[in-house]
Amino acid sequence: MARKANIAKEEIIEACWRLIETNTFPNIPRLSEYFKELDGRGCSNTTLLNAINDWEEDYREHQETELKDITEQLTPTFKRFERDVIQQLSVLLDEKIQANEHQLALKKDAIEGRDNSLADAYIRSEQQLEETQALLDSVQQSEQDLLHQNQQITQRYEDTLSRTRVLESELDDNKRQLREADTKLNQAQVDLAKQDQQIKMLTETLKTTQQQLANLAHQTQSQHEQMLSNALAEIKELSKSLKPNKPDA
Fold first, then answer.
1. What are phi and psi of 186, to 5 degrees?
2. Which helix (H) or strand (E) holds 125?
3. DSSP letters of 13-31?
């Protein structure tokens, strides 16, 4: 017969969380061993399975919430990055256009004989171009960093999904093992009931046989006593017949 459960469902669910924190997926054998080592208590496989099913729903909700939080945290960052990149590129484009226009103006001034001013302006223009290029490189580096972060988050999301599939597969295996164990337990209970019936029948047969033996012993003793009584009576009769007759006076 199955053992009476003496472990609360809340305790089993808490044990499931403790096992998953150690990267150990909770199943019936692991939970049974956990409580055995904890305080020696035990309960039926059905109780453990029901608690595992409840914990599985909580665990899935927890994962979905965690992924949702990650997405909500990164969405503003990506939007802000997109907005900043567009704004910075617009600024860079305007600056470059202005720089080119300024260069054209300087070249025009050079043609008109303003060589010295053109040289100074050209140097300033080159400096502006270098600063603009440095800013563009910085923006591109920031973009690469954000892309790298996005790849890491995507990989983490894929790893979580993969782990969820593994956990679901292990849970299906645990359910299958529990069904097989329940089938074996039911068969063992049927066999035990048959053995109990056989023992009961053998006990009744033994009692009947003992009663019959007692009756037979009583009958045999009575027969012996009757035979002995008959023999004594015959001896007495024989003794009487053997006594000598008294002579006539």
1. -60, -40
2. helix 115-242
3. HHHHHHHHHTT----HHHH
Contact assessment for residue 73 and residue 38, using Cβ atoms and an 8 Å cutoff: no
Angle at Cα 40 formed by Cα 38 and Cα 46, nearest 5°?
100
- Tokens standing for 219? 């009958």
Rounded to whole angstroms, the Cα distance separating 67 from 229 reads 105
Contact at 8 Å (CB) between 119 and 69? no
Residue owning tokens 């305790």: 11
- Helix, strand or coil for residue 8? coil
Query: Do residues 185 and 2 touch, judged by C-beta distance below 8 A?
Result: yes
Burial class (CB in 10 A: 0-12, 13-18, 19+), 96: middle
Count CB neighbours of 48 within 10 A: 27
Residue 34 has a CB neighbour count (10 Å cut-off) of: 16
Q: Are 191 and 69 in contact (CB under 8 A)?
A: no
Q: Residue 44: phi, psi to the nearest 5?
A: -75, 155
pLDDT top residue among 224 and 57:
57
pTM above 0.70, yes or no: no
Q: Within a 13 Å sphere around the CA of 28, how many CA atoms are in the beta-carbon half?
A: 21
Q: Compute the chain's Rg from CA coordinates.
A: 52
Specify whether the CB–CB gap between 43 and 3 falls below 8 A: yes
3-state secondary structure of 43: coil
Q: Decide: 4 and 41 in contact? Cβ < 8 Å.
A: no
> In a 10 Å sphere around its CB, with 0-12 CB exposed, 13-18 middle and 19+ buried, how is residue 109 labelled?
middle
* Confidence at 29, pLDDT banded by 50, 70, 90: very high
